[in-house]
Amino acid sequence: MTPVHSMIAQATHDKTAHKITLLHTNKTLEDAPCQDEFEKLAKVNPNFTFIPVLTDSAPDGWRGERGRIDEAMLNRHIPDLKAPIYYLAGPEGMVKAMRQLLVNMKINEDNIRTEEFTGY
Question: How far is CA 82 from the centre of its chain?
Answer without folding.
Answer: 16
